[in-house]
Amino acid sequence: MTLALGCIADDYTGASDLANTLTKAGLRTVQTIGVPADDLALPEVDAVVVSLKSRSIPADEAVARSREAAAWLNARGAGHLLFKVCSTFDSTDAGNIGPVTDALRADAGDAIALVTPAFPETARTVYLGHLFVGAVPLAESPLKDHPLNPMRDSNLVRVLARQSRAEVGLIDLATVAQGADAVSARLDALATDGKGAAIADAVLDRDLAVLGAAALTRRISTGASGLGLGLARALVAAGRVAPAAAESDLGPAIGGPAACLAGSCSQATLGQIARAEAVMPVRRLDPARLLAGEDEAGAALAWAKERIGDGPVLIASSAGPEEVAAVQARHGRDAAGHAIEAAMARIAEGLVALGVRRLVVAGGETSGAVVDRLRLPAFRVGPEIAAGVPVLRTTDRDMWLALKSGNFGGPDFFADALALMP
Ligand SMILES: Nc1ncnc2c1ncn2[C@@H]1O[C@H](COP(=O)(O)OP(=O)(O)OP(=O)(O)O)[C@@H](O)[C@H]1O
Ligand SMILES: O=C(O)[C@@H](O)C(=O)CO
Fold it and tell me: Where would one find coiled-coil regions in this protein (predicted)?
């Protein structure tokens, strides 16, 4: 297998978002969970997206895991490596976007890395280095209250510089408008000036195609699915990939019980849970009881067992910013997050033991905990439920999944997802 594109994603929902984008752009793509075992049978593909759970772990561990993924992809001949980060640049001053980009760039022997989280399809745009989420700057968006990485600075040149060893420059929209050669020349000029990374502006899909073509002149780049789209288009345009139709048939219906789990506290997910209450039973975990050591997971499973035969159920830990702040003040941010993720993973395992084969999970860290606990090695990518969220089918057993990034999906996302999982 010789890969046109190797991708390393810093969380599992982000990985399926990217796999969805690449598939839609004509690249035959597989999403693996972690660095695959050497004996994992994979179909012939153009791109592999290795999903890591490295967004919110210590930077040195994120670097080590990303390097391991890069080595696996390079050993399969990957022509270019994309480090997939969140379109809202989720990170802290400790990392991990800067440290991982620095390390992958150094290993690849590149002087500078192009970096952009722009993804216009989901209203993430970058102008003069400032990230906008919809109509507002990042620091005024709901991301300012993210439970793990509150984003309080919209200027990504500053954000990335604080977490990088390298100095960071800007490729502005005026340069992008001049085309891929101009962007590539600007990258060279910034590198000569001592910069090791450059935030690139993009507001429209056509900007992504320019950035993708420029990024392909180097070994690595860092970005969200928008840059993935640009790279895919550039690979097709250069004749390095023959575009394939997206797989519409991932196999026979599976049927049986279905369930949804939500650990994301994003505004979008909170609204989707409220809407789901009209069409399925919803159980809300009590984080205070859970963190006090009560068996909230066991109680939720007993609740689910009584209802699962009648139709889908939803179990959520999600809460609004005040409640999250109160839990974190009492137990610490990471301890609270990990304990809730562990409970969600246990619930997922219990649901599968009850026969659930159609599972929707909201939240990247939550999805990571769930998928790890279920030991799912890899997914094929099916139809798109909403921008950035495909239906996934496990390669080693009959199971449908959807791993939803916290902010993605329409108001009826949970019902929409289950409708595409026969
Ligand atoms: N009620 C709660 N109080 C405090 N923390 C919570 C609560 N519910 C969930 N969490 C934690 O908040 C974090 C949410 O992160 P997660 O990545 O799952 O969602 P997200 O950030 O919205 O999604 P994405 O990364 O896909 O954008 C997890 O660590 C989860 O355990
Ligand atoms: O890029 C995004 O917004 C998503 O794929 C994601 O990574 C959210 O966790």
Answer: none
